[in-house]
Amino acid sequence: MEEAAAAAGGADSGGGGGCAGAPDEPVVSLAEVLAENEELEKEARAVLGGSDHERCSYSQGAVKRQALYACSTCTPPGEEPAGICLACSYECHGTHKLFELYTKRNFCCDCGNSKFKNLQCRLLPEKVKVNSGNKYNDNFYGLYCICKRPYPDPEDEIPDEMIQCIVCEDWFHGRHLGVVPPDSGDFHEMVCQTCMNRCSFLWPYAAQLAVPTLTKMNSHEDDGIVLNVKETEEQTREIKKESGLDHTEKCVEEQVEQCNEPSTSSGSACPKVVTQNEEQFCKLREFQRKPYLKKDTATFWPSSWRSKLCTCKDCLKMYSELDVQFLTDECDTVLAYENKGTSDQETDRRDPLMDTLSSMNRVQQVELICEYNDLKTELTDYLRRFADEGTVVKREDIQQFFEEFQSRKRRRTNRMQYYCS
């Protein structure tokens, strides 16, 4: 609390930020400081909550999602890229220059393996030479976006939000996504234009599910191509070929030819029933029947959109071939990771007061509880005045409070006598 007050008081130093004579000085109220500190702590708990700060994550194998770092001191540009877990960033690289990578999926800690020529992991020295399942990009050298620039970029004077692609997990400037991004509160996930081109099956979904955006194209001719399965037979075949579903229809046609009588089985139903079941079974085909726009831009998606992706046998095979099976897993999302991290930390967080009480006898417990409640009540009442008035809490205000509190405590103690029976 004193640190928070000191931070608030710091804004008032050098002539008094709240005085009329210095209108340009920033004024920060206690309520604003406390709210900002709470928000920062919440963000830190969300990002780091699912990671262990004491034990290397290597023993867990390829962790589904964890906070990662890259060490520029040990693996500078020109060397092989490597990633380290939260615990190793503290224990093995505490004095090194690190790049914070936020979170990555399916990653195994590299600390101390063959990529680190002069360093052995202090937490788990015995590791394989290379984690072949790990994926790396320019982020591991502190470079981001299609512009391959650091973040923060000292040469970039344009304020811009960085957004992470959920497929390649690279970070992009909002202005480099081919569209004007929606407000940050309107979408939960983004797929960059490169990944949209590679996963073209997402465009039919985007037409129905994605958050609308404003394109930044200079010409309407380049704005995109409207794809509609009703246009021509050749265009229809091309759309299905791009989406990997042309072979699916062939299988269905073969099943229809072999059908001799109606059945409840989707594999041997009559032609009419097969068509209806197939339409219901493959969501992608249903979306492809509607017009959609295919552009060279990123797309933005609302929450729970992954649950609407088709999980039929052929679509699952397509996801596997494109190495994007994770798209059907809603627990893969960063939001799910953050929620789990926050929940775990709230559960694991121990109350220091309760820890102290457990080591005391009954008389000491009663005394401590009384003193704690007195301090909490008086400090809350004292600080509420500043918050209500929107005024700055100075360091001397806090010092004065504790001096007066100690004085009142001494007076109460001198009047009290404890008797043990």
UniProtKB/TrEMBL annotation:
Highest taxon above the source species: Eukaryota
Top-level EC class: transferase
Pathway where this protein functions: Protein modification; protein ubiquitination
SUPFAM superfamilies: FYVE/PHD zinc finger
Xref: InterPro entries: UBR7 (IPR040204), UBR7-like_UBR-box (IPR047506), Znf_FYVE_PHD (IPR011011), Znf_RING/FYVE/PHD (IPR013083), Znf_UBR (IPR003126)
Listed transmembrane segments: none
Compositionally biased intervals (Low complexity): 1-10
Name of a matching Pfam family: zf-UBR
Positions of UBR-type zinc fingers: 54-126
Coiled-coil regions, chain positions: none
This protein's GO CC annotations: cytoplasm
Molecular function as annotated in GO: ubiquitin protein ligase activity; zinc ion binding
Catalytic activity: S-ubiquitinyl-[E2 ubiquitin-conjugating enzyme]-L-cysteine + [acceptor protein]-L-lysine = [E2 ubiquitin-conjugating enzyme]-L-cysteine + N(6)-ubiquitinyl-[acceptor protein]-L-lysine
Sequence segments annotated as region (Disordered): 1-20
Enzyme Commission code: 2.3.2.27
Ranges where the UBR-type domain occurs: 54-126
PROSITE patterns assigned: ZF_UBR
The entry's keywords: Isopeptide bond, Metal-binding, Phosphoprotein, Transferase, Ubl conjugation, Ubl conjugation pathway, Zinc, Zinc-finger
Entry keyword Transferase: yes
Start-end of Gly residues biased regions: 11-20
Known function: E3 ubiquitin-protein ligase which is a component of the N-end rule pathway. Recognizes and binds to proteins bearing specific N-terminal residues that are destabilizing according to the N-end rule, leading to their ubiquitination and subsequent degradation.
Name this protein carries in UniProt: Putative E3 ubiquitin-protein ligase UBR7
Taxonomic source organism: Alligator mississippiensis (American alligator)
